[in-house]
Automatic annotation (TrEMBL):
Its EC number is 2.7.1.20. Binds 3 Mg(2+) ions per subunit. It comes from Sinocyclocheilus anshuiensis. Keywords: ATP-binding, Kinase, Magnesium, Nucleotide-binding, Nucleus, Purine salvage, Transferase. It comes from the Eukaryota. SUPFAM superfamilies: Ribokinase-like (SSF53613). This is Adenosine kinase. Pathway: Purine metabolism; AMP biosynthesis via salvage pathway; AMP from adenosine: step 1/1.
Length: 340
């Protein structure tokens, strides 16, 4: 493995995690297990959560979490994973840079001063988590000011595997398409995550523009259902949805699309002949926080994918990573993995 083999691009957010009560969720109209973008009515929420509850800060954002976990699973060499995204020139941006360095990820942020660094409130109730993202700076990523720069594009060209979470479709479709086309034309692997039901519903045009370049599509059961509904697939069966998503038109004919849908403790569906892989057993009492479990699954998967392991091994690594993450607060993990 060499440096910069894995490339991720997305919304770098500082996660503000806290265990909250039902009243807090109700006050801001939040569902126990959901992810949304902050609206005007959520503005005070970020201050209130810090004042009212015990908070922890973690470097977050879906794609950044996944490449961080992939790097942790790989361990050496450092900087196998590259990450692009936009931050503000502020305290939270500084924390994100430090956290990326600690995780040995080669983060190249586009820094600007119009907007502050993005944050994400992770409101935890029981083993559910409701995420509210205030994109701020993350929304300001500019293709021509960052991705197109020669030294940055060289890092894109060095990679063999690309991963972008669907959340970035709300920010810079043209950046995603540039990377996706590069991957497709050079027979490299481009991976996309559906990320949230609202992406499938409100950003379906952008999603369908990228879909022909997608070699590996990730999602969970609620995202798969939203995707099926928007595409008019007349089925609620997750294996059927996966098969239909697999057969959507594809640019690079040398690679068959693989669809991977997680369903929490129900096992993971993969269209390599469509089978379901059971997840690792965990006692309810050992679950600390499910924030980042899906990102961790993808990170584990990618850590093996960049090493040309079988898809089955990729899934086992994904299950292992997710199992570790849900035992910790936020998307955090012990110093070294114990994966064999």
């Amino acid at each position: 493995l060499t440096q910069n083999t894995l490339f991720g691009m997305g919304n770098p957010l500082l996660d503000i995690c806290a265990v909250v009560d039902k009243d807090f969720l109700d006050k801001y109209g939040l569902k126990p297990n959901d992810q949304i973008l902050a609206e005007e009515k959520h503005k005070e929420m970020f201050e209130e959560i810090v004042k009212k509850f015990k908070v922890e800060y973690h470097a977050g954002g879906a794609t950044q979490n996944s490449v961080k976990v992939a790097q942790w699973m790989i361990q050496e060499p450092h900087k196998v994973a590259t990450f692009f995204g936009c931050i503000g020139k502020d305290m939270f941006g500084k924390i994100l840079k430090e956290k990326a360095e600690e995780a040995h990820v080669d983060a190249h942020y586009y820094e600007q001063s119009e907007e502050p660094t993005g944050t994400c409130a992770a409101c935890i109730t029981g083993d559910n988590r409701s995420l509210v993202a205030n994109l701020a700076a993350a929304n300001c990523y500019k293709k021509e000011k960052h991705l197109d720069l020669e030294e940055n594009w060289k890092l894109v060209e060095k990679a063999h595997v690309y991963y972008i979470a669907g959340f970035f479709l709300t920010v810079s479709l043209e950046s995603i398409l540039k990377v996706a086309k590069h991957a497709s034309e050079n027979n490299k692997i481009f991976c996309l995550n559906l990320s949230a039901p609202f992406i499938c519903e409100f950003f379906k045009e952008a999603l369908m523009k990228v879909m022909p370049y997608v070699d590996i599509l990730f999602g969970n059961e609620t995202e798969a259902a939203a995707f099926a509904q928007e595409r008019g697939f007349e089925t609620e069966d997750i294996e059927e949805i996966a098969k239909k998503a697999q057969s959507l038109p594809k640019e690079n004919k040398k690679r068959q699309r693989i669809v991977v849908f997680t369903q929490g403790k129900e096992g993971t569906v993969m269209t390599k002949g469509v089978e379901t892989f059971p997840v690792l057993e965990i006692d309810q009492s050992e679950i600390v926080d499910t924030t980042g479990a899906g990102d961790a699954f993808v990170g584990g998967f990618l850590s093996q994918l960049v090493q040309d392991k079988t898809f089955e091994q990729c899934i086992h690594a994904g299950h292992y990573s997710a199992n570790v993450i849900i035992r910790h607060a936020g998307c955090t993990f012990p110093e070294k993995p114990d994966f064999h």
